[in-house]
C-alpha cells in the first residue's frame, strides 16, 4: 500500500487538527524555500501540491472521516488480495476484524475530537462576540453619558449667560431710570429757578413802581376843598 495523506504530512492517523495544521505550515515553509521557478513538474513542486491537497482534506472533519473510512476499506481489500479469501485462517480473520474495529474506533475518536474542537471554537467565537457586544454597549453608554454631560454643561452655560444678560439688562434699566430721575429733578430745579427769578423780577417791578409813585406824588400838604 502506498503513502496516504497522513504519510505525506508525516503524521499518525490519530493526529489532532492542531497537529495537522502545524505540520502543514512547517512543510509548506520547508518546500517553499526549495521550489524551482522554471520547472513546474519538479518533484518538489509535486510534493508541495500534495501537501496542500492532504491538508485540505484532513483539516475538514467531514472529508477526513470519509477518507478514514476509505483507508479502512483499502486496507481490508489489500489484506484480502494478499492472503486470499479461501486461504485466510480464522486467526487472520480475527486480526483483520480487530484491525478494522480499531481503525473504525480511531476514525470515530478523531471525529469526536474534531467535533469537540469545533464546539470549543464555536464557544470561543460566541464568547468573543458577546464580549464585543458588551464593549460596544459600554462604548454606547459612555458616548451617551458624554452627550448628556455636554448637554448639561451647555444648559448650565446657557443659564449662566441668561442670568448675566438679565443682570446687565437690570443694570441698564437702573441706569436709565436714574438718568430719567436726574433729568426730571434737574428740570424741576430749572423750573423752580425760573419761577424764583420771575418772582424776583415781579418784586423788583413792584418796588420800582412803588418808588415811581412816591416820586410822582406832590410835595407839601394837600388842601381839600
Structural write-up:
It is a single chain. This protein has 225 residues and is mainly α. It has a domain at 5-145: Helix Hairpins, CATH 1.10.287.110. It is 83% helix and 0% strand. It contains five helices and no strands. Helix 2 runs antiparallel to helix 3 and helix 4 (61-83) runs antiparallel to helix 5 (90-216). The model has no long low-confidence stretch (mean pLDDT 80).
Major sheet attributes: none
Reading the helices and strands in chain order gives HHHHH
Low confidence ranges: none
- Average residue-wise pLDDT: 80
What gross morphology would you assign?
rod-shaped
By CATH reckoning, the class of the domain at 5-145 would read Mainly Alpha
Number of DSSP strands?
0
Brief descriptors of the model:
single chain; 225 residues; mainly alpha; Helix Hairpins; 5 helices; 0% strand; rod-shaped
Question: How are the SSEs ordered, and which strands pair?
Answer:
Elements: H1 5-8, H2 17-32, H3 43-58, H4 61-83, H5 90-216
Helix pairs in contact: 2-3, 4-5
How would you summarize this macromolecular structure in one to three sentences?
With 225 residues, the protein is mostly helical. It has helices at residues 5-8, 17-32, 43-58, 61-83, 90-216. It has a domain at 5-145: Helix Hairpins.
Amino acid at each position: 500500500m502506498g503513502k496516504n495523506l497522513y504519510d505525506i504530512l508525516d503524521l499518525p492517523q490519530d493526529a489532532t487538527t492542531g497537529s495537522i495544521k502545524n505540520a502543514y505550515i512547517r512543510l509548506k515553509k520547508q518546500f517553499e524555500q526549495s521550489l524551482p521557478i522554471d520547472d513546474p513538474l519538479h518533484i518538489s513542486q509535486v510534493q508541495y501540491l500534495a501537501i496542500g491537497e492532504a491538508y485540505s482534506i484532513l483539516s475538514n472533519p467531514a472529508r477526513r472521516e470519509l477518507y478514514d473510512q476509505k483507508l479502512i476499506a483499502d486496507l481490508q481489500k489489500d489484506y484480502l488480495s494478499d492472503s486470499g479469501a479461501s486461504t485466510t485462517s480464522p486467526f487472520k480473520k480475527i486480526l483483520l476484524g480487530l484491525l478494522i474495529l480499531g481503525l473504525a474506533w480511531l476514525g470515530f475518536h478523531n471525529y469526536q475530537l474534531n467535533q469537540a474542537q469545533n464546539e470549543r471554537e464555536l464557544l470561543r467565537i460566541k464568547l468573543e462576540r458577546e464580549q464585543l457586544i458588551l464593549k460596544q454597549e459600554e462604548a454606547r453608554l459612555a458616548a451617551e453619558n458624554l452627550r448628556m454631560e455636554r448637554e448639561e454643561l451647555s444648559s448650565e452655560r446657557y443659564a449662566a449667560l441668561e442670568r448675566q444678560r438679565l443682570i446687565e439688562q437690570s443694570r441698564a434699566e437702573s441706569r436709565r431710570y436714574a438718568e430719567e430721575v436726574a433729568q426730571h429733578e434737574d428740570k424741576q430745579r430749572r423750573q423752580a429757578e425760573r419761577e424764583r427769578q420771575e418772582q424776583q423780577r415781579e418784586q423788583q417791578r413792584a418796588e420800582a413802581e412803588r418808588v415811581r409813585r412816591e416820586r410822582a406824588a406832590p410835595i407839601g400838604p394837600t388842601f381839600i376843598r
